[in-house]
Each structure stands twice: as structure tokens, then as C-alpha cells.
From TrEMBL:
It comes from Marchantia polymorpha subsp. ruderalis. It is found in: Mitochondrion. PANTHER family: GLUTAMATE DEHYDROGENASE (PTHR11606), GLUTAMATE DEHYDROGENASE 1, MITOCHONDRIAL (PTHR11606:SF13). This is glutamate dehydrogenase [NAD(P)(+)]. GO terms for molecular function: glutamate dehydrogenase (NAD+) activity.
């Protein structure tokens, strides 16, 4: 069965149902807003698609109407899916079980997919749900020792209200269907909240990247890409992956190369993936820009006199204490920026334990990076005490706690021991919904992942350019579609215009007054790609933060609910405005 067959099989609902859905947009109470979803189970040789209601949920509005769940622009086929509250579940059992058994959060907290759902519910004042499509890919890998291993991988697409869908690829041993789908859903809301015109997706490859050689990882990534190509799960107009936990620019370069080999006539082929090295069509970023997005948002919050005074803090980053969990791409770059702005990083947690500053000066992030690179661990770093229990680090006193590792790290069993005043979610989904309730009661403010990590920008040492959150990915995608770097057409023109203006002003004064060479150079300098990226990033971040802050104030809700609300409204408007075809 092809994917479009799968779509068309579903009942196409009448427009009046869409109108009822719109009516509910105007304030009907939705108690449980659930999804209908579809899955594609794909093996390397055969493709089997099971349509199932993955997490069938009851949608109730005040009229007790049932709502259509609209699957739009599904690879060119518009259709309405689901709709009735309880559908025949068909082949659900096997897949539903596997979804439920995976991705469980600790200690009875909801699993990650349920958490995203709950956050969505908390924000939803109206019903709108979107389908998931999950590609489950299995393929054999010939290992160096001659054995063959079956690799399990996924790509989940959450919402096609905008195309392409977008989201990173994870490489981690705990990857599963549940986690991939939850992360895909988060991507939908994240893109909407920062107004980046993509639907949500996510990929996952279930391996521990540290246990494989670079050659083996290349084989895995290329094979994964070829599976995605075969199934139409990748392409500049369809689905555009990016880095995530455990992957980086090198993996993205392999994806691009594989795609271009398999689709040599696609002139926009390089836009099939973002987070690439600069030489492969990545976007330029500078060393100082690393960790910028999370830093920007934390800084904006801490600079807001009114908001911080409620937490009995003075405004500003300077002198504030920070704890970072996860000293990887996101964590170390964020720590770097905060330290450079005068913040004190007092502890860092890693998977094998944590370190606590003993000097009182705050940790030297550059020195820890160098230490980690040689020792393969941060533990034992001079001037610190080592804690073997990484979880303890989260519970130390500080102003801002930055979880930058994985989801569900702050849950119902440790939330009451967290002593931070603010939690800045650099990772995706680090706080479970139960923990959020506990933290809120204790007056702890959460800056949500949706907003924070959409703006991540970072640069690895050496030859790779910046890889970052989805906002920067958006700029890279645009650059690739333009087939030209930002500033190429305008930079010299800007420079000659400004030069002519300065010359004219100097002549006008007529008294020989001249700008110094240095000042002249600074003023005349045209915008480079980096300038465009920073400016676009800062604009996107400031506007998004301002929207979230104001919505939270108006609705009297927390920042996460405000962010989801903004996202839901944008997605709903998109469905409403684009109508139903055919
Ligand atoms: N890389 C990217 O561009 C983006 C990443 N994110 C999110 O940020 C988070 C981190 O991603 P990256 O920094 O790229 O991954 P990474 O793989 O570079 O770093 C993660 C670090 O966390 C550590 N870690 C793992 N489990 C831990 C635990 N239980 N306690 C403490 N540390 C632990 C790992 O050892 C590693 O050093 C993820 O949630 C990811 O989805 C979000 C947006 C973009
Ligand atoms: O840059 C992208 O396209 C997605 C990054 C990502 O996976 C995320 O924000 O979680």
C-alpha cells in the first residue's frame, strides 16, 4: 500500500466538520485532546504500512462534537483522517504496545510522548490534531570483525501543515518509536513558536555512537539515508534532517552526499539536510557565537527587572550561578557564553558523574573542554570535587539550572529537591509534566525547550561551520535554495553606498575633517553571512520571547503553556486559511 493510498483510505470529512472544529477554536473546552496517527513499518527489503491509531484520545468540546483530525498536504494528497472518537484499531496492538513499552520516564512519570501530549493539552483551548507517520527502518551492518548486526532506526513526521518537515537525527542506544514521535511533535510546536515555516519531524538510530568506528558510522548513516530516499522520507521539499544528540556536521555531510548520489538531478539537493560543514553548504558562524540561542533567552529573562525581582534576584547574568547538565554540543557552548558574560558555572553533570567548583571563581569552561578531550571524561578536573552520582548535581543550589542532555531528567521524584530558581531547558523535554507542577508550586520558573533550543547556534572546533537549532537550520536551507551565500549580492553594493556617503559628508564640511581609517572601515563594512545569521537569529529570538512573555502575562499561564498556545494558534490558522483540497 502506498502512502497516498493510506491517506485516501481515510474518510474525507465534510467541510461543516471543519467549521465545527473552527468553532471549537474559539474557546470550546477540550479536555482530552488526542492524536490519531499512522505508522509506516518498513524493513530494508519490504515495506509494510500499518495504519493504526497510535494514541487514540477522546476529544470533547462543549457540544460533545467529535472532531476531525486533519491530515493536510500529505505528499500532495490532502485528506481528513480519523475523526471518530474510537476508531477500529485494526493492527494497532503490536505497534501500540511497542510504543507504550518504550521511552518510559522514571518513577511513574508519563513517558516522553505522553509528556508532550500533556503539555499540548495544558495549552489547548481548542482542538487540532495532526497525524504522525513513522518509518521504522531495519538494516544489516557488516561489522569490522565480520559479524552482521541489525540496526534499528526511525524517522517520524508529525505534522505536514507546512512542508518540508524538519528535525534532527539522534544516535543513541535508547532511541525508540515513542521518543522519536515525541521529539517529532515537539519540532512541530517549536517551529511554529519561532515562526519557522516547517512541519515537525525527528529521526533516530538506535546505536551508541561511541561503540562504532567512523567508517561504520558512515555506512550506517549512508544506509539510513538511502532507506529514507527509497521511502520519500527525505528531500528539500519533503523532509530535511539536521543534527541532534549524538550526531553532527560529519553525519550531515554523509547524508547530503548520499542523497545527491541517489537524486543527481535534484538541483536543490544540498538543501536535503542542514547542519552541514561550511564547505558542504553549511552556514557560516563564528567561534564566539556558540551556544548563543540558549544564552540569548536566559539573558533576556535575567535582564527583565520585573521578572527577576519576583525571584528575589537582581537583573543581569553577571555574578549569577549556573549548573549545566550534559557537557556536549549544546551544554558546553551555552556554558561558554554564560561564563563569558560574567556568569559563574558552579557545577557540571555528565552521564558518569559530575564536578563541583571548589575555587569559588566558577569553572573554566575552555579548560574543562580540553580536559574532556584528552581524558574522555570531565571527572577529576583540577579545582573541583567529583560526585559519582550525576543526579545529585541537579539538586545543588544555584540561580539557573540548565539541563542540556536528554529528556525526563527532572521528574516527580527529584523535582522537590531542585533548588534552582530558574530552569532553562536547553535539551528537549528535560522536565516531565508532573515535575513541572511540583516546580511551579515551589515558585521555580521554567524557560521551555520550545523557545530556548530553537535558537541554538554553535560551532565545533576546526573546519566545521555552525550547526544549530532550527532557526539557523532555516537560514541554511534558504541559503541552499538560493544557491548563494547571504551577502554575496549586497555586500559590495552596501559598502560602496556607505563609502560614497562618507566621502560626500567629508567634502561637504570642506575643512579637511576626515574619519579615522579605523572608523571608516567599521562604518563602511558590508554585511557578511555571519552578520545576516546573527541578526536573523536575534530578531527571531527577541520576537518569540516577547510573544511568549506577553501571552503568559495575558493568559496567566506559564511560559511553556504560552509557547504551546502560540504554536497551536499558528498551526490552526494555517489549517483554517489553507482550507481542504480536494
Ligand atoms: N544538537 C543540536 O543542534 C540540538 C540539540 N538539541 C537538544 O539538546 C540536547 C543535547 O544535544 P547535544 O548537545 O547535541 O548532544 P551531545 O551528544 O553533543 O551532548 C549531550 C551530552 O550529555 C551527556 N549526557 C548523557 N546523559 C547524561 C546524563 N544522564 N547526565 C548528564 N549528562 C548526560 C552526554 O555524555 C553528552 O556529553 C538534546 O536534548 C537535543 O535533542 C536541541 C536543539 C538542537
Ligand atoms: O535544526 C533542525 O532542523 C532541528 C534541530 C532539532 O532537532 C531540535 O531542535 O530538536
Amino acid at each position: 500500500m502506498s502512502r497516498s493510498d493510506m491517506c485516501l483510505q481515510n474518510p474525507v470529512r465534510a467541510v461543516d466538520e471543519a467549521e465545527r472544529c473552527d468553532a471549537s477554536l474559539e474557546g470550546a473546552a477540550v479536555r482530552n485532546l488526542l492524536w490519531s496517527s499512522e505508522a509506516a513499518t518498513i524493513s530494508s527489503t519490504t515495506m509494510r504500512i500499518n495504519q493504526f491509531n497510535c494514541l487514540s484520545k477522546l476529544i470533547q468540546n462543549v457540544d460533545q462534537l467529535h472532531h476531525p483530525t486533519i491530515c493536510r498536504r500529505q505528499f500532495g494528497t490532502a485528506a481528513t483522517v480519523g475523526g471518530t472518537v474510537r476508531q477500529a484499531l485494526g493492527q494497532i496492538v503490536e505497534t501500540k504496545d511497542s510504543v507504550e513499552n518504550h521511552g518510559a520516564a522514571p518513577h511513574g512519570d508519563p513517558n516522553f510522548l505522553e509528556s508532550v501530549d500533556i503539555y499540548f493539552d495544558r495549552a489547548a483551548a481548542y482542538a487540532q490534531s495532526t497525524p504522525d507517520i513513522l518509518a521504522q527502518i531495519k538494516f544489516p551492518l557488516k561489522c569490522g570483525n565480520g559479524t552482521v548486526e541489525l540496526i534499528e532506526a526511525y524517522r517520524a513526521q508529525h505534522s505536514h501543515h507546512r512542508l518540508p518537515v524538519k528535525g534532527g537525527i539522534r544516535m543513541a542506544p535508547n532511541v525508540d518509536a515513542n521518543e522519536t514521535m515525541a521529539l517529532a511533535a515537539l519540532m512541530t510546536f517549536k517551529c511554529a513558536v519561532v515562526d519557522v515555516p516547517f512541519g515537525g519531524a525527528k529521526g533516530g538510530i538506535k546505536i551508541d555512537p561511541n561503540k562504532y568506528t567512523s567508517t561504520e558510522k558512515e555506512t550506517i548513516i549512508r544506509r539510513y539515508t538511502s532507506e529514507l530516499v527509497k521511502k520519500n522520507f527525505i528531500g528539500p521539499a519533503l523532509d530535511v534532517p539536521a543534527p541532534d544528540y549524538g550526531t553532527g556536521p560529519q553525519e550531515m555531510a554523509w547524508i547530503k552526499d548520499t542523497f545527491e548520489h541517489l537524486r543527481p538531478t535534484d538541483i536543490n539537493g544540498s538543501a536535503c539536510v542542514t547542519g552541514k560543514p561550511l564547505e558542504e553548504g553549511g552556514i557560516d558562524g563564528r567561534q564566539e557565537a556558540t551556544g548563543l540561542g540558549v544564552f540569548f533567552c536566559v539573558r533576556e529573562f535575567l535582564n527583565d527587572k520585573e521578572l527577576v525581582s519576583k525571584l528575589n534576584m537582581n537583573p543581569g547574568v553577571k555574578g549569577k550561578t549556573f549548573i549545566v547538565q550534559g557537557f556536549g554540543n549544546v551544554g558546553r557552548h551555552t556554558a561558554d557564553k554564560l561564563a563569558a558574560a560574567g556568569g559563574k558555572i558552579i557545577a557540571v553533570a555528565e552521564y558518569d558523574g559530575g564536578i563541583v567548583d571548589e575555587t569559588g571563581e566558577g569553572l573554566d569552561i575552555t579548560a574543562i573542554k580540553a580536559y574532556q578531550a584528552t581524558k574522555k571524561s570531565i571527572l577529576g578536573f583540577p579545582g573541583t570535587t567529583t560526585r559519582r552520582d550525576s543526579g545529585e548535581i541537579l539538586e545543588l543550589e544555584c540561580d539557573v539550572l540548565i539541563p542540556a542532555a536528554l529528556e525526563s531528567q527532572i521528574h516527580s521524584r527529584n523535582a522537590h529537591r531542585i533548588k534552582a530558581k530558574v530552569i532553562a531547558e536547553a535539551a528537549n523535554g528535560p522536565v516531565t509534566p508532573r515535575a513541572e507542577v511540583i516546580l511551579e508550586k515551589r515558585g521555580i520558573v521554567i524557560l521551555p525547550d520550545l523557545l530556548l533550543n530553537a535558537h541554538i547556534i554553535k560551532r565545533e572546533m576546526g573546519r566545521f561551520s555552525s550547526q544549530g537549532g532550527v532557526t539557523v537550520s532555516y537560514f541554511e536551507w534558504l541559503k541552499n535554495l538560493n544557491h548563494m551565500h547571504f551577502g554575496r549580492m549586497s555586500r559590495r553594493m552596501e559598502e560602496s553606498g556607505k563609502k560614497a556617503l562618507i566621502d560626500a559628508l567629508e567634502n561637504q564640511f570642506g575643512n579637511g575633517t576626515k574619519l579615522s581609517e579605523d572608523l571608516r572601515r567599521q562604518i563602511v563594512k558590508g554585511n557578511t553571512e555571519v552578520d545576516f545569521v546573527y541578526s536573523g537569529l536575534e530578531e527571531t529570538m527577541l520576537v518569540s520571547w516577547d510573544n511568549v512573555r506577553r501571552t503568559a502575562q495575558i493568559k496567566g499561564c506559564n511560559y511553556r503553556t504560552a509557547a504551546y498556545l502560540i504554536a497551536i494558534e499558528r498551526i490552526a490558522t494555517c489549517y483554517k486559511v489553507s482550507g481542504i483540497f480536494p
